[in-house]
Amino acid sequence: MITGAWRVGAAQSRRRVSSVAWIMIVRRFLHWVRTASAGERAEATSALARAFLFSDLSPDDRSAAEGAMIMLLDDASPLVRRALAQALAASQKAPPAVIQALAADQPEIAVPVIERSPLFIDADLVDIVATGPSAVQAAVARRIPVQCAVAAALAEVGSAEACLELIENPDAEIAPFSIDRVVERFGHVAAIREALFARGGLPVATHQALVAKLSSTLAEFVAAREWLGAERAHRIAQEACEKATIALAAQSPARDTRPLIRHLCDNGQLTAGLILRALLCGNVVLFEEALAELSGLPLTRVQGYVHDNRGAGFRAVYDKARLPASTWPAFRAAIEAMREAGPLAEPGGPARLKRRMIERVLTGCEKAEIGEVEPLLTLLRRFATEAARDEARRYCEELVAEDMIARLVEEERFAA
Question: Among 79, 237, 307, 415, which is least packed, fewest CB within 10 Å?
């Protein structure tokens, strides 16, 4: 009978029930809930909440109904509180005190309120992110919309699940520094990497950070499985990361090169080996930007020294950049080869090592003191092997392509 009365009250939209009658219903309800089952209480609670939202009640009636809902917050059954949460979650008219209390309840009750209620301000949501469990943080991340400050809180302290929800939310306003923080904390999680790439518009430095995280994760996985020794696995992963970084720089606009260089500096990845690889790939822009950043000299001055056929001044720039003395012979020989033949004289673009250039650098370095340049020669030989394999792949691909074209021509000739 009580449940039926709530249904009638919920259906009487924009109709005034007398205050005496309404208060009588509330009084009976308060007595009835003491003995009703949890399922019956949940159904009646949902009807009470809908009546509060949609019926035309006087201020006194609304106060009585709100008092009843506040009392229901102490109900021992989560079914009752969940019914209240689901009924009030999306409404602007919901009592703020009830919404705040439901948001502090157990996750299965709090989640629909936190995800959908329009009554929360950003400060509330930031506090919820700071104190709530993963499921509650994920509910904040799914809100429409998510403002920049809330996204920053999620990026800083949110769980991996919450950060994934944030990235996948098209209505979330995420600042670049927040994306970088997510990459720093969870770049090793495959689902987050894929979601970031799918989101698009990533700065080149962020893209490189994801590549570095992937390389490190793969190295640790291979070492843990004992497929390779830990040192060798990390060396291979580092070289793969450097190769990907050069390719990424080659595909990006020139204006993005300096931010990438600064990112590499900040993370200790701008090594002499990476700079040498850039030069041996013919990526002169990356090479010059790196020297300018490390030396503190204007880019135009560095460019002048690099392209000065007399060679004067380049050694001074090299020393000012604090690059290792042991790698100087390789850089000197590479610069000489570039000046004579041009950085892109060989095929492959600015993302692939140039085999002939490497061979010339090897020849020049072999004349130096072997004790000083032995690690450099080892690196250059690995570069030479990589370049030879790339060249062989390109050659085989060209042969296959030519054979396919010849077959198509032959088939068209016979068809005619």
Answer: 415
Answer yes or no: is 412 within a domain: yes
Q: Please indicate, yes or no, whether the overall pTM of this predicted structure exceeds 0.90.
A: no
Residue-level pLDDT at 369: 62
DSSP letter string, 225-277: TTSS-HHHHHHHHHHHHHHHHHHHHHHS-GGGHHHHHHHHHHTT---HHHHHH
Instruction: Output the pLDDT for position 290.
Output: 95
23 and 47 share a domain? yes
Domain that holds residue 327: 271-416
Count: domains in the chain = 3
What angle, 0 to 180 degrees and rounded to 10, lies between the N-to-C axes of helices 160-168 and 176-186? 140
Extract the residue ranges of the chain whose pLDDT is less than 70: 1-22, 309-311, 341-348, 368-373, 416
CB 337 within 8 A of CB 360: yes
Q: Is residue 102 part of a domain?
A: no
